[in-house]
Amino acid sequence: DAGVIQSPRHEVTEMGQEVTLRCKPISGHNSLFWYRQTMMRGLELLIYFNNNVPIDDSGMPEDRFSAKMPNASFSTLKIQPSEPRDSAVYFCASSSDLSGGQETQYFGPGTRLLVL
Amino acid sequence: GNSVTQMEGPVTLSEEAFLTINCTYTATGYPSLFWYVQYPGEGLQLLLKATKADDKGSNKGFEATYRKETTSFHLEKGSVQVSDSAVYFCALSDRGNDYKLSFGAGTTVTVRA
User: In terms of Cα–Cα distance, which of A93, A85, A90 is closest to A112?
Assistant: First the structure.
């Protein structure tokens, strides 16, 4: 199993540019999560999907952030326009099901974003 | 709401020393408890978990016991190695929060040879 795949691994962009982060969950997993990690705030859940449907996007910081999951094997997180305060490591995670709460979330390697 | 409080770091140890990282939680329901580990430059990996009171999770020499009476899930390892240097996160999920993971702030552990 290839695990959760994220691309790009590193992204450097200028303020105002659009940034798109990509995630391929583990095959057969039907829940997908986007997290942001910073020194100041730690790990924050931004949004999660179940069966490709957004369930809770209350963690999305503002309208500049949007996420989609057009099919079971692909999700994107877009920031438009980007700002320096968006600099962080963005993780995608997937799990097999939300029911029961015992299921492990498997994390991707993350995308390190730097907005200049 | 749910919350996780874990011991602040950083923690620096010598090889073969005993490691304890304290973790306590607050939950509205009956949570599952997890320890995740993040090695430098990598994503989080599940280290161990426990889903009911008095369960002991164990992996790679690490152990943690689900203590409902003290709402704790402390992580221990009897003899650490340099390769255990990482950030350790305590986390919980429960039905009351739609099974979303609530993470602690993380504890950075450095093991010196």
Answer: A90
Which tokens sit at B109?
A: 């552990």
Sign of dihedral through CA atoms B99, B107, A38, A107?
negative
Q: Which residues of A touch B (CB under 8 A)?
A: 4, 33, 42-43, 45, 48, 55-56, 91, 93, 98-110
Looking at beta carbons, which residues of chain A come within 8 Å of B99?
Answer: 98-101, 103
Q: What is the pLDDT of residues A79-88, one digit of tens each?
A: 999 999 999 9
Structure tokens at B9: 């770091």
pLDDT in tens, B25-75: 998 878 999 999 999 888 999 999 999 999 999 999 999 999 999 999 999
